[in-house]
Structure formats: C-alpha cells, structure tokens
Amino acid sequence: MSSVYLEGIIAGDGLATIIMWINHYAGWTIPLIVGALSPVLVMTGMHYALISVAINNLAKVGWENIVGPGMLVSNIAQGGAALAVSMRTKNSNLKALGISTGISAVLGITEPALYGINLRYRRPLISAMVGGGLGGLFLGIMSVRRFQQVPPGLLSLPSFIGKDFTNLWWAIIGVIIAFVSAFVIQFIWGLPADEAPQDDIKKATSSEIKLIKAPLAGEVEALANVDDVVFSQGMLGKGVAIFPDDGKVYAPFSGEIRVFSSDTKHAIGLSGDNGVELLIHCGLDTVNLNGQGFTAHIKQGQRVNAGELLLELDKQVITQAGYDPITMVVVTNYNDYNEVKTVAQEQVTKLDDLLEIS
User: Fold this and answer.
1) How would you list the strands of the sheet with 340-342, edge to edge?
2) Is the pLDDT reported for residue 26 higher than 90?
C-alpha cells in the first residue's frame, strides 16, 4: 500500500472524527459544512469517510444527518450553477452542455457538471458551494434527517420522509434555497470575458489541426459504446475510449495536471500548452476503489512533458473488484473547436495518433 494512499486513509478518518465531534456539539452546522464543501470532498475522495459514518448511523438509529442533507443541497446547487451558465452563455455548445449536466446534477449525478463546467470555469463552482452552504444551513437549523441510504438528488427526496411529512417539506425548502441561490449568484456573476466562449466563433482564425496522441496502448472503442451515460452521451466532452493493454498512462502532450486526486487516482485532468483540456478517466466507477489498483507518478499542479509516465493501473485488481478498466480520453473544452474526431484504428500503442482537433 502506497504512502500516498495511507495518507488519504488517515485524512479521511481524521475528517470523519472532526465531523462527529462537531455533530455532537453543534449538529446543525454539519449540513452547512457538507453542503458547501461537498465538491471539494468528492474531488479528493474524502467523502467516503463520511458515507461510512452515515451508513453506521442509519444502521444504529435509523436516520443520519452527516451526508444526506448536505450532499442533497450540494448536488442541487451544482445543477443550478450549471443551468445558470447555460442560460447566460451565447455559445450553443456550452448552452447544451450546461442544460444536460445541470439536469443530471439535480438528479444526483454531479460529475459531468463538476468537471465539465463548474470546476473548469471556477465561478460556477463557487456559486454552487455558496448555494449548497445556504441550503445546508437551513436544513441544519430545521434538524432535517435522512432515513435511507440513496444517491442524493431530487429522486431521493422520499428518503427524507419520517413519521410524518414535516421533515420532507423542510428538505424541499432547503433544495429550493440551494438551487435558487446558486442559480442567481452564477447568473448575475457570469463568466470572465477571457474564459467565456463566444457564440459559435472559433477563437483561432487559422485552420490549425491538432493531433492528440494516445496516452496508453490498447483497443480503441467509440465513446457511444461505453456503458456509462455520462461518457456515451458526451456529457463530459468528445473523445474515445481505450481498453488498456499494459495499463501504463503517458502524457499525450506537455502541460499541467489541473485535476488529480492522490486518494482515488482514477482520473487526470490535463491542461495542455496547445490549449487542449483533456480528461483521462481510468475505468468505470473506479473512484470506489479509493486508489487500489492505481500507482500514481504525478500530483495536482505538476507540470509534465509529452511522453512522461503519469499513472499505472492494474487491470487484474480492477476487474477482480468488479469494475471495468476501460479508459476514456475526452476533450472537455471541445466547444472551443469545430470538430473532434478519432483517427486511430482498432488498436493503438502508446503515443500513436488518436484524436484530431480542428
């Protein structure tokens, strides 16, 4: 077990201990804290420590206020911020992305909104954290509880029904506060002029074509065939999937590691010197492995050169745990370009031509 993974376990356990202490003395603040910080906790994988505490509470006393209320309003707020971006922007691609990821977020699937819009443009992330905090504050004051372990989103509201419907009504009001707050803040705030894409106008005036190399060797598969709606419907961007051979992941171009969790190690967000923002997502639902089966050679914020080894994934460990090791290579800022198409054949070796961006 790597030292980095051990540090993640210790940090998660430490966070759970702190949350339990706060819950004992000022329980009403827990939904506020979780509602505001959930995006950060999810990005680092530390939310799993809290989920374990929540499940334990559900088993012992039949309810919990550690995860459910806070993550409910956080997810709704992330959807509100993404939808505000779609309503404000003049770019048709970003508008469509905001609508699709915003709807999925309010239903409980936040990864497309988090990585596709909110984290990428930063202001929506801040708006979502403020909205989640305000909604969580209300739920904490009203002592809202959850009675079943289900993914937090609009469809999970029945899990807040207790002996009567009072708890549910408070939960609904908290959801409204979170959504409206995040939506209004982001709609008024907007995106910085240097980050907001223009209305279907290519930023570069030349007919530049960029070739993206394959970050790993393996069998090429269309994203549409991936057994995950987030990727198959292009919610996170356009690209391709690769079923890995040896599991070694290399930098397809030089740039900076913008997104990487040292705990889960399953996804890399790379911002290239060529202007391309690339997501390399190793496996389906492998975030649940908490880093098992992955060996990282990078950290967030690090600069890497083309061809540098970034990550190693152990297919045997991943498949034995019941997960698919197929790896998605996705251009997340595809709306800055006219076209993203696959140029690779059925099989690629590392650093073969994989995608063409024009």
Assistant:
1) 210-213, 353-357, 340-342
2) no
Length of the chain: 358
Residue 115 per-residue DSSP state: I
Main-chain dihedrals φ then ψ at residue 220, nearest 5 degrees? -80, 135
Do 113 and 78 meet the contact criterion of CB atoms below 8 Å apart? Answer: yes
For the beta carbon of residue 324, count every other beta carbon within 10 angstroms.
17
**Does residue 216 sit in helix, strand or coil?**
coil
Determine the Cα–Cα distance for residues 342 and 220; give it in Å rounded to an integer: 9
Query: Does residue 194 surpass a pLDDT of 90?
Result: no
Q: Which two tokens stand for residue 168?
A: 């549910």
pLDDT digits (tens, 9 = 90+) for 72-103: 999 999 999 999 999 998 888 888 888 988 99
Domains with residue ranges and CATH for the chain: 3-189 (no CATH), 210-357 (2.70.70.10)
Q: Answer yes or no: 281 catalytic.
A: yes
Catalytic residue among 24, 47, 266, 281: 281
Q: What is the DSSP letter of 197?
A: P
Percent of the chain at pLDDT exceeding 70: 89
Question: Could you tell me the pTM of the whole model?
Answer: 0.64
Rounded-to-integer distance, Cα 83 and Cα 325, Å: 32
Q: Helix H segments across the chain?
A: 3-26, 30-44, 47-61, 68-88, 92-106, 111-113, 119-121, 123-141, 166-189, 229-232, 315-320
Whose CA is closest to 99, among 114, 118, 82, 115? 82
287-323 per-position pLDDT tens digit: 888 889 999 999 988 999 999 999 999 999 999 999 9
Q: Which two tokens stand for residue 256?
A: 């900076």
